[in-house]
User: What shape does this take?
Amino acid sequence: MEAPQISPAEQEARQDFYNTIDRQSLTPLWEVLAGLVTKEPVSQAKPHLWKFAEVRPHVLKAGSLITAEEAERRVLILENPGLRGESRITQSLYAGLQLILPGEIAPAHRHTASALRFIVEGSGAYTAVDGEKTIMEEGDFVITPPWAWHDHGNDSDRPMIWLDGLDVPMVNSFDTSFAENLAEDEQQLSRPTDWSPDHYSHNLLPVGYENAKNYSPIFNYPYARTRETLYRMAKYEEWDPCHGLKLQYTNPVDGGYAMPTIATFMQLLPNGTTTTPYRSTDGMVYSPVEGTGRTVVRTPAGDVPLAWEPKDVFIVPSWMPHHHECDGEAVLFSFSDRAAQRKLGIWREQRGNGPVSGPH
Ligand code: GTQ
Assistant: This one.
């Protein structure tokens, strides 16, 4: 519909009216509607890649400037260049690189935000969650569910660096953030280390077991098992044109995502493949684990190639078509707010030039 012509006098009358109602905190919807209810997602986030080799020295330097104890969490936030100053990597998610040096403790606290750890460098540090410790290795995916006490420590002899992913921006957009510190640095342990996988894994659950919580009873999804599963499936060569072989981490009790808001994935891309473009409404944070390649993101301003190698972190904003080109075989970890979007019935995806599939 063409915008009707209005005379300068009419325009002035309208502007007077807007100025008058402005004093009552009123705004005319018709002036802002198109930008408010957009025809499709218009993300302020930009595609971006942080090279681990460039960021790592800064993370280690932080270790010489402040202790984990004083910082509470010694983290360099990965701020999306389109969202500077907002502590966001995508519109709805926070991410950062956390460092724990040998012998250090990040003291126990809990918050309504959900957190994940994806282990990037080091081996043998622990996270304690809900009374249980888990020892972490590179490539492991570890959850810290909402309102669960958690503290981290490093009993190894090397620095540990992991990628933190939290739903803080989402929680804050609801104004629902609560947080508290435990009086002691470390929480009391009520179960042996890595007790949960011995009880809830291998497609078996204790008879009568009911999970009253909305998150997985498994805290650590070790890389060794994830990788083995991918490679067992890969022998059938049933590659998806968009995703290669992409698995989602699940809660073994109900088959849902491991946490209520954040979905996590691990995918294997076949040798030298170029995937078919794909887009979805969940901005996606990736961390390559094996292999090298490029992810090309189509933005309104043109294509942005992101060249990655293991331990880098890169982001593909909501609804931007992208494809992967890998040099050999590659394994990519990723996470997004898909778990929340699907619960709310607002998630959409599009494969290539195919139809947009509606909310699931
Ligand atoms: O480890 O609990 O990167 O509370 C930001 C906030 C990590 C954590 C972060 C946190 C944590």
